[in-house]
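2024-03-11 09:14:02 INFO receiving multi-entity request
2024-03-11 09:14:02 INFO entity count = three
2024-03-11 09:14:03 INFO echoing inputs for audit
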Amino acid sequence: MRPSHQARTHRAASPWLFLLPGLAVIAVFDLYPFLTTVWHSFTDARTLLPGHWVGLRNFQDMLHDDQFWTALRNSTLYVALVVPCTVLLPLLLALLVQPRIRFVGFFRAAFYTPVLASVVVVALIWNWMLDDRGLVNGILHALGAGPVPFLGDGWLLLFSAMALTVWKGLGYYMVIYLAALANVPRELHEAASVDGAGAVRRFLSVTVPSVRSTMVLVGALSSVAAFKVFSEVFLMAGPTGGPAGADTTLVMLVERTGTGLSGRVGYASALSLVVFVITLALMLLVLRAGRGEDAP
Amino acid sequence: MTRVWGRVLRYVVLLAVLVITVGPFLWQLSTSLKGRTEDIYTFPPRLLPRHPTLGNYKGVADIVPVWSYALNSLTVAVANVVTNLVGASLAGYALARLRFRGRGAATLAFVLALLVPLESIVIAQLTLMRQLGLNNTLIAVVLPGCVGAMNVLLMRDAFGHLPYETEEAAVIDGAGVWQRFARISLPSVKGTLAVVAVFSFMGSWDDFLWPLIVLSDSSKFTLTVGLNYLHGTFSSNQRLVAAGTVIAVAPLVVMFACLQRYFFRGVAEGSVKG
Amino acid sequence: MPISRGTRSHKAVGAALPLFLAAAALTACGGNADGGSSADGKVAGDISFQTWNLRANYKDYFNGLIARFEKEYPDTKVRWIDQPADHYADKLSADAAGGTLPDVVNVSPDLAYPLAKAGVLVNLDKEPASTKYKDEYTPEAWQANEMPGLNGGYAFPWYLNTGPLFYNRALFAQAGLDPDKPPRTYDELFADANTMARHSGGRVATLAATPAIEDFGRYGVRLMNADATEFTYNEPRGVELLTRYKQLYDNGALDAQALTNGPEESGQKFLEQKVAMNPGSAHDLSNFKENAPTLYKNLGIADAPNNTGHPNMYVMGLGINNGSRHKPAAIAFAYFVTDRQNQESVAHKVAIFPSTRGSLDEPYWTKDDGTDEGRVRVAAAKILKGAVNYTPVVMSDEMKTVLQNQVALALQGRKSPKQALDDAVARGDELLKQG
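2024-03-11 09:21:47 INFO inference complete, emitting structure
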């Protein structure tokens, strides 16, 4: 393109040319297929059998489905407990490995390993460690504490799965923070240091404001991910969601009702739609909360 | 004095986190190196194999054509990295730096795409691929994820952090929007580009469900799908499974170990100094 | 994959897929109604044959089998596809909905039922080309693929499996039980389990899994009404079984993690010698030998108890795609794979059992050759005579989960066994009606 000598900085069509590949892909492969889900949520379709229009019946059924309320509670708890950890801990970790000290490259890379491995592998290892006679209980036993039923108790299972989510996300969000921290002018920190500002105050008054928009982004991404949690709980608590299904999450319920050769596609689609609407609301909430000082 | 203690404390914390993050993988590695005669289920568990052997790795290669599956995975992953770098940086730039009508709607479209529960649309995607005549090809494996909404939003965040002054100077010099994108903005977000590259590579490498659904021909399988053959119908050998997981993770670790200098340097220095 | 020790936990990532199938299925079925050719024609054409996770270890066997078939029918060509362990049902539903189901597919009865109901599989009792082979299989095996309300069998019976109860002799001895006298009845089983728990101070459980539908069946509980439209496992006998399990759980005789253990975890606990008994099958032996040599030295083998005179078995079959363009060739091939000679030859290679009439009377399955494998093989073959597949084919995974969760509530003491089973039956019936 020839340099433009006009006052405006780009031609009217340019933005859309930039957006074309990305928009085309998500429109064709994400948004359009999702419309089918919306349609199915008003039918009683089965995996291999076509459905009939049933209006709002799937949504009414949900209100009387105990499993739905359990799942809604679990997914909400997941957001409430996991998101603060995934926003804060990776930031602290990023600060820990930000300075150029010896071996820091090694540590950064090592902390990233859990992100590299697939969640299936990771969950297998965790299951082994948290077993009644596993490594963690072995250590507890040596310290004189009785075995903790991490994998037998409904609540402990849910908390263990949360810990796994946080653990696996540490390196992932750490990297996003490192990229953002690189934008914080070093002089700011050093100036604060000369002032004798304590580490905590420095963190609150310099670091946090300067990575605020990234914290909001991480918060938004991890709330969506936490609300849609599936693999960690599925793998640790089992496909039926722990003792008596007490650990079922919403997406697990979608999987349970909608898959297999006799899946209730209509009902599962309605559940998907609920998940979609709640995550959308969550995301907007987090973004709005962070908007205040977001502008550069 | 406090400086020294601060440093010691920092290393202590670093080592603790190291044990927590890497320890579990060493266990898997250890299991994969244990020979046939060694009981892998004793209690208390033994971390160091008594007679380390590479036999299990050979066993995996006998069952699964590891090399050709790895090549398929590599092809898909590299293609995924390239398309994501190009597509996400273009879209991210437009969303962050260009003013135009419909920008809000376009941003929303990417946010919505991020929220779509992927599991619920796999079959519709398969039907699409069949209509396009692409099912059972590696192209079909790449297409749905070739521009990830998440990556677009990450690039938007990165471009949004760039100071406007540099670009304004270029506008005055008469640089067009494509030149400003390619010559000024893009080099300034190397860090996030590296992040997007690694994320897309991993996402593609670890993906299981979609390649399984869209590929029928076992010669086209990717590594994660192919390694699933290790869970035998008639018996599962934990040592082989462990060796298989090591084979699946090792290329990522090696790649990451080689690239991590550039990756983190990019992450730390890529952005324009404030 | 009913034979496997479950790869449940690997089902893992991303599962909720076939949400779009219904619309696609509509078109697929429409096409199938008149798309398939008659089954009486000439055995010719290219057909595809899909197995479930057999390529890794039995590649040469299948290539040889296919070569022999193609030699016998020179106008045919068979393309063999093998699917990995996980997500097989999802792969099947995607293909069934999209009209790309292979001509001959490896299915278990619970997979065959929804496919048959959607009109995707050939009713073998209605095709002269296939009915003529019916008598070559054992009646129990053929019946396992007969679908309630669909008038006929929908898959050629292929291999069968069943298994004894394995037990850990060392753990039995430690608890003061005679390792040479394993429990033979439910009464003995429950009594031994309680003794074991008492002696080990609750550290060693005897069983690792909560009762599933087939356990109710073996206990003699009537699972469904005659036309398979309502569940009946909440009858007094069912409540009795659950009450006894509740006592086991309270005594520590049922593993503390039983409420969440799947087959894979249960097997694992037995391997790790944390649990004293576990149901298994002949091919577990090599697994024990290789992965847990200390356990293998102490391995005992007992018959799984039942109150009905009919042990439980699992059945694998081969279904024919109703939309196949070369049905005669597909049927000929499915029969070829499952005929007596080929079933017996594959069963000599793998520790599974043929479903063809008379096969189990062969010396290979009746004469103990002195090895552990031989012992288990002969014991299992004996069990298989008269064994039935207890799991009702109409019981979807979701209905099984309902039962499992209600059982868990009863074991936790949050509901009485009676209440739990009543609730499970009510919910199961509700789901059944929607289907």
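2024-03-11 09:21:48 INFO post-check: The CA atoms of residues 203 and 249 of chain B lie 12 Å apart.
2024-03-11 09:21:48 INFO post-check: Residues 64-269 of chain B form a domain with the MetI-like fold fold (CATH 1.10.3720.10).
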